[in-house]
Structure formats: structure tokens, C-alpha cells
Amino acid sequence: MPLAATGELVGGAAAARSAVVAFNIITLEHVEAVVAGAEAAGTPVVLQVSENAVKFRYGRLLPLARAAAAAAERAAVPVALHLDHVQSDDLLRQAVEAGFSSVMYDASRLPYAENLAATRAAAEWAHAQGLWIEAELGEVGGKDGRPPLDAHAPGARTDPGEAHAFVTDSGVDGLAVAIGNTHAMTERTAALDHDLLKRLAGALDVPLVLHGSSGVPDGELTAAVAGGIAKVNVGTALNMAMTRAIRDFLAAHPEAVDSRKYLGVGREAMAREAARLIGVIGTPRT
């Protein structure tokens, strides 16, 4: 089917008091696994390509984007493409040609006023191109090998009043919030601040996004959706599933050299994990 639009998927999930899952992809195996998992769950999904993934692919966006689009167009469920954690304006401006319907523009590393100015300019450009745009306020730590902020450090959590002003002044369509979540966690021990989430949901009229979800236990994810999260980003969980499966296969078959054997095992593990997480996260709110 034709590529879906991220904004429509997120808006539909928010209206249904549910959430759409957005998986970060790095290889073709990630793409195929996520699509297979979404088809098994019978649920729409978002394929995300981060700026870091583009750097890994020699700085070229189109090869992975074209592969993702081709897989999405042949999927039995709606699939959208999202360009994630974009800091480069040059990369931002490649989004439309590459088939993306949305971007997450990340200026969260900047002081508030600079973050707002950069995000407002990005939003104006994105809307002129028909793109849905997400931003981040507060710091969801753990990116690029940096340690997470202490839960009580300044800027570690998203302030509801500041978030309302930021969304109003920047014109973004969705906001990633920092409520105790952290990127790149390999243990599922994150405890979310659900009272803060409730206040953010009450203060904002745009969909809320949860980054760093791989370190959040299932019950916490379900509660986050119940509290107003409409888009949940997942990356590390897929990489962990793939790596474990490949390690186990190679340990059991040390003579193996055909990459299709171990990549296939890794792809199947990611598909199972994608389907499982979709089942956990996509449960409608009551």
C-alpha cells in the first residue's frame, strides 16, 4: 500500500487513546523485521532513520530510505517513514525527496532560547513542505554515549509550563518529553514520572512522544500510553534481540560463514520483539 503519513498515524493513535510504535532502523534486516512484526500484530508502524544511522551508512540517506520505502509499499499494514533526531539542516532538507512524511528536529542540546529559535525555523520549513515535525524539550539523556542526567538535574525533566510556551511559540506538531526515560538503556529499569506526564498531557494539545523506551518495563510503557503518550520510539531493544540471537547462533555453529544464516536468525528475533512490543504499547487507553 502507499506510504502512510506519520502525522495521521500519530493523530489516529491519540484519538483512539492508544500509541503508535516507531522503530529505529539501521540495516535492511531491521526494516524487514519491523514490517514483519507489524504485520503479525496487524498494526500500523513507523520506520525511523536517525541522523546517527545516516552517519553509519557513510552519510548517505537515500539507500536505506529507498529500501524502507519499498518495504513499506509492499506491507500489509500502513507504514510511515520518519527522520529522527536531526541536527543537520542539510539532512533535514533531504527528507521530502527521500520519502519521509515527518521529522524530529533535535535542538534540545541548546539553551532554551536557541532551541526555540532553531526549532521554529525548522518547523516553518517543514510545514511548507507538508511535513509533520516533532521536537524535544528537557533532556532525554544517553545519546552518543553520554551518561543520563540525574533525575533532579536542571533540564533533566520537561517542565509543563515551559513546554506549553515552547509548543505554542515553535509551532511543532508533537513533543518528545523527558519524564525519566533515557536513550540506549540495555536494562529495563527506568521508572517514569507519571505525575509529570499527567501534567504535561494536561498542558499541551499536541501528541506526546516517549524516547528511550527500550529501558522502560512493559508495565511502565502501558502506563505511559494510559497517561497520554501517543508515539513510542524503540531502538536498542531491537538491537539487543538481534545481537543475542546472532551470538547464540554463532556459539552453537562456530563453523558458520554464510551471513544469511546468522542475519536471518537476528531478523527473526527482531520481528518477534517488534510484534511483542507493539502488543504491549498499542493497547488502547481506557
Defining traits:
single chain, zinc ion binding, Class_II_FBP_aldolase, alpha/beta, about 290 residues, globular, TIM Barrel, zinc, eight-stranded parallel barrel, Aldolase_TIM, about 15% strand
How would you characterize this protein structure?
Zn(2+) 1 binds at residues 85, 183, 211. The chain has helices spanning 6-15, 28-41, 51-56, 62-73, 89-92, 112-128, 160-170, 194-203, 218-227, 236-252, 259-281; strands spanning 20-24, 45-50, 79-86, 102-105, 132-137, 174-177, 208-210, 229-234. The chain has 286 residues and is of the alpha/beta class. Strands 1-2-3-4-5-6-7-8 form an eight-stranded parallel β-barrel, surrounded by nine helices. Helix 6 (112-128) links the parallel strand 4 and strand 5. Helix 2 packs across helix 11, helix 7 (160-170) runs parallel beside helix 8 (194-203) and helix 10 (236-252) packs antiparallel against helix 11. The longest helix has 23 residues, at 259-281.
Please specify the SSE layout and strand pairing:
Elements: H1 6-15, E1 20-24, H2 28-41, E2 45-50, H3 51-56, H4 62-73, E3 79-86, H5 89-92, E4 102-105, H6 112-128, E5 132-137, H7 160-170, E6 174-177, H8 194-203, E7 208-210, H9 218-227, E8 229-234, H10 236-252, H11 259-281
Parallel strand pairs: 1-2, 1-8, 2-3, 3-4, 4-5, 5-6, 6-7, 7-8
Helix pairs in contact: 2-4, 2-11, 7-8, 10-11
